Amino acid sequence: MRYPAVVQKLIEQLAQWPTVGPKTAERFAFYLIKQRPEFLRALAQSLLDLQGQLTQCQVCHNITVENPCAICRDHNRERSILCVVADSRDLAAIEETGQYKGLFHVLNGTISSVASGQREGLTINHLLERVASQSISEVILAFNPDIEGETTALYLIRMMNSTKVRITRLARGLPAGASLDYADPMTLSHALNYRNNIK
User: Which string of DSSP letters, residue by residue, matches 137-177?
Assistant: First the structure.
């Protein structure tokens, strides 16, 4: 059945979200149709606020409303340790453990092992500049233990191989295929505390 154009347009927009197929988008659309106008106005305002208020930290590339972000401005953080993550969700998951007190660098994604040109949009060059220009003694590579995470870690290890910085990775306490943002704080705490040397 073809829905009215306004409904069809909403379904098509929702279907572009990650892991949302046409049927799920249709269910979401009809859920929204049944909501009160004040709910829809609040949702619409929240979406507009994402563009109007959020920005990217000029230092670590985390999402923030202030620039630099609160973590980069915190002088109590251990500034010689840099934890590299794929996105802000992974940063938040590590912060939630309360175990890590260093700085972060958000890559804004990972390198795909099959798609060339996947480095566009990633903040790898800025990461290398930070390692070269700041007093960084250790870089922790904190990526999901999947093919993209492994590919990204191996690439960064190669790029930093000539530096004197210590490179570590999260310990293998995380199951293969797991996502950092779904891991429980205890698992992440162990992974951070028992990370392995790479060089």
Answer: -EEEEE--SSHHHHHHHHHHHHHTTTS--EEEE--TTSPTT
Tokens 């912060």 -> residue:
95
pLDDT in tens, 1-53: 678 999 999 999 999 999 999 999 999 999 999 999 999 999 999 999 888 88
112 in a structural domain? yes
B/e letters for 102-116, b = 16+ CB within 10 Å, e = fewer, are: bbbbbbebbbeeeee
Q: What is the mean pLDDT of residues 143-155?
A: 91
Residue 93 and residue 188 in one domain: yes
Q: Model confidence over 162-181: pLDDT tens digits?
A: 899 999 998 766 777 778 88
pTM over 0.70, yes/no: yes
- Indicate whether 153 and 108 sit together in one domain: yes
Q: Name the domain count of the chain.
A: 2
168: closest CA among 121, 75, 110, 100? 100
| Helix and strand numbers, DSSP H then E, in the chain | 8, 7
Domain limits for position 176? 63-197
Both 112 and 157 in a single domain?
A: yes
